[in-house]
Design brief:
Dihydrofolate Reductase, subunit A; two-stranded antiparallel sheet; alpha/beta; homodimer
């Protein structure tokens, strides 16, 4: 069975996923009158489950919206003791080595995973466990914040799969790990 | 007279213009059998002069090639005492406030400037003196090195002008400062 770990994320031109105050409102700075989804719905159809860090999980919980995922969410955390009762059917705590967590998810039949959250993406990249990355670039410089990419010991080569432009302003490029 | 300060540069996916060893050989990692110029010749036709930092100047001098510019090059430096004799007709030392240097260049009839070199680009961006940026993204992560973008006190908004794909692998996007 083919297995893939995918990233689908937006950054500023200077590569940040959150600004200096941890805010992401600038993501919506390009007017989007028809609620263009930038390919998100199609992307979500192709995945079996999500893997995200505690911070991202708590951020999503904090949004004043309904739980946005219809696939199981695995929350990577050593700190969190348990998933709040309200979300016990939707989210599941995992910890340990990433490769062990992946084996566990694969055994459950979750082969195509959406890896989300800055720290989690960086951890997966450090172990060369990301197979596809889709980055939507918002045309502004934040000048500081939380970077999508972190330090790596070696170069990691990718292959461009496609580039699209959304709303005439947002460049979205998809890359596949060259192995 | 319309005046523009333009950047034309390539980065890794993680936003570096040089790797951890200061090297740029990864820029040529995408096979380019027909010497595709990525729009460089057309870009150069539109500029009157270059402004670069000392380090970039010395790097270009160090290349084992003929002097690559047919437009005057203004070298920003407080450290360099003089331009080597071999290049006295081609390159000129400037220093002081960027806005004063720009006035000086405009008086000489150089209205469209190619701002080059990491430190110099960052200095111009800090003072919001960049009008257009063209970034070619090479599909690899370096994991460290010299970043194109540095810290800024405020957000800086741009407008996407165009996106092109070169060699089926390199995404090149051009942005205009939104003023």
């Amino acid at each position: 069975m083919n297995k893939t770990n995918k990233v689908f994320i937006a950054t500023s031109l200077d590569g940040y996923i959150a600004d200096k105050d941890g805010k992401i409102d600038w993501l919506y700075s390009v007017p989007n009158p028809d609620n263009e989804d930038h390919g998100y719905v199609e992307f979500m159809e192709g995945i079996d489950a999500l893997v995200m860090g505690r911070k991202t999980f708590e951020t999503v919980l904090g949004f004043d919206i309904e739980w946005p995922y219809d696939k199981p969410v695995f929350v990577l955390s050593n700190k969190l003791k348990e998933i709040p009762d309200s979300h016990k059917e939707k989210a599941f705590l995992v910890n340990g080595l990433l490769t062990d967590i992946l084996s566990q998810l694969h055994k459950m039949g979750h082969y195509h995973l959406y890896i989300d959250g800055g720290t989690t993406i960086q951890s997966f990249l450090k172990e060369d466990l990301i197979d596809e990355i889709t980055i939507s670039q918002i045309p502004l410089l934040l000048g500081g914040g939380f970077s999508l990419f972190g330090e790596l010991s070696d170069k990691v080569e990718f292959e461009l799969i496609r580039t699209k432009v959304f709303l005439n302003q947002i460049t979205q490029s998809s890359y596949k790990r060259k192995r």
